[in-house]
């Protein structure tokens, strides 16, 4: 099994990336991969892409893997709340003494709000517009594009 959490968006050469996964996997091995649907730009050291559900599945399958599952994590409404929380926390944590306490309290409230928003968002909307996707796939007999 190869596990790749929150890496794919930082990979410049997807052909090489998937070729290396294929190289280390046994023919009956599995790839568990998570990556962004929508998320902030965050270069560490670089940040290249975001996907819709359909686009991510097509990308993985284009490199010779069959996707057996693609689970969305956090819908678009809750994501906007988490995005605002990220900004608020960044600013609040700079305030001396009370800033971190206020940021922590706000974090608890806004995370609860995001949980409720996610529960209220129709699954069909979240399925194609998630913040993060977690996929399960396995190599096919076709190797996909050369690295």
Describe the structure.
- By secondary structure, the protein is α+β, with helices and mostly antiparallel strands.
- The chain folds into two domains: 100 residues, 3-Layer(aba) Sandwich (Rossmann fold); 45 residues.
- Helix content is 45%, strand content 18%.
- The protein has five helices and four strands.
- It has a four-stranded mixed sheet.
- Helix 3 packs antiparallel against helix 4.
- The protein is elongated, with a radius of gyration of 18 Å.
**Percent of residues in helices:** 40-55%
Q: How many structural domains does the protein architecture include?
A: 2
At the first level of CATH, the class of the largest domain is Alpha Beta
* Sheet with most strands: 4 strands, mixed
Strand portion, in percent?
A: 15-25%
Question: What is the count of β-strands?
Answer: 4
CATH topology of the largest domain: the name is Rossmann fold
Q: How many H/I helices?
A: 5
Low-pLDDT windows of residues: none
- What is the structural class? alpha+beta
Gross morphology: elongated
| pLDDT averaged residue by residue | 92
The named CATH superfamily of the largest domain? Vaccinia Virus protein VP39
Any idea what the radius of gyration is? Answer: 18 Å
- CATH architecture descriptor text of the largest domain: 3-Layer(aba) Sandwich
End-to-end separation in angstroms reads: 21 Å
Which sequence of SSEs, written as H and E, runs from N to C? EHEHEHHHE
The largest beta-sheet arranges its strands as 1-2-4-3
